[in-house]
TrEMBL record:
Family matches, as Pfam families: HTH_1, LysR_substrate
Record InterPro entries: LysR-type_TF_proteobact-type, LysR_HTH_N, LysR_subst-bd, WH-like_DNA-bd_sf, WH_DNA-bd_sf
Source organism per UniProt: Gluconobacter potus
Source organism, top-level taxon: Bacteria
PROSITE patterns attached to this UniProt entry: HTH_LYSR
Keyword field: DNA-binding, Transcription, Transcription regulation
All residue ranges annotated as the HTH lysR-type domain in the record: 7-64
Listed name of the protein: LysR family transcriptional regulator
Family membership noted in the UniProt record: Belongs to the LysR transcriptional regulatory family.
Amino acid sequence: MQERPLIDLQTLRIFMAVADQVSFVGASRKLGLSATTVTRTIRNLETTLGLSLFNRTTRSVHLTTEGAEFLVRCRAAIADLDGAVAVARGAGTEPQGVLSITAPVIFGRLHVLPVVTDLLKAWPQLTIRLFLTDRVVHLVEEGIDLAIRIAPPQDSALKMQKIGEVRKVFVASPAYLAQHGEPQSLENLAAHSLIDIDEYATGHSEWRLGGKNEPSVRISPRLYVNSIDAALAAARDGLGITRALSYQTHDSIEKKQLCRVLADIPTSALPVFMLFPARERQSVNVRMFLTAMKERFMTGTF
């Protein structure tokens, strides 16, 4: 049986660059190669593998399903190899190369970005890719080194470290409370104008103080939105009371645009975790970021 030719590291790095840049020309500029070289390399790689890695049109280049799966494995293999080379060269104790992180949008902006900027100032050889999104990102499949998650994660294949807690809070503008008064109990919320985050706007909402066993109240909100930013903006405009997590309301409360409602009623804490793939040896970049985040949030609740 005829053996397939070996694939060299330069070819894999070119493939990863095309995937990252979503462009042959962009990859060629990033790598300092001609577009012809990049295009020919990818064509030869596809021939060697016996499959198409990219869907090409005159305007765009996108990974095929097989290409996306191949990219995940390439990232993991190259990251492990680069780490081994760094250790062999004695550079394994200093952060360098690329670290990919994902976090919820508001939490990331308020609490992750400051850590990221401090690390970039301290380590000039380090590059960080920060993805702020409220969807659940699959770390291995999407080439992410580390994720910040709120509430216990479901993926048992990931390692996790708790860095703090957040709590559910109810807020409204000072103007709304001056006009309508402040509810004195969870049940009183039903008599107020409420703003709910509900992607499907079913009209059958329920607010509770914490987990499944905590007290709850059925509500009929006047406004349904599908993002926390929109809910808080409507609350600041005086439309009514909304529910959010403590870190999401911090800025508006500090600026006196919003006030806590039912602040004396205890709510369940939701843990904040850092998650990362369960590899045998974590890179110096991951270890450094974990340490920096834990140091920042030793105080506990956000």
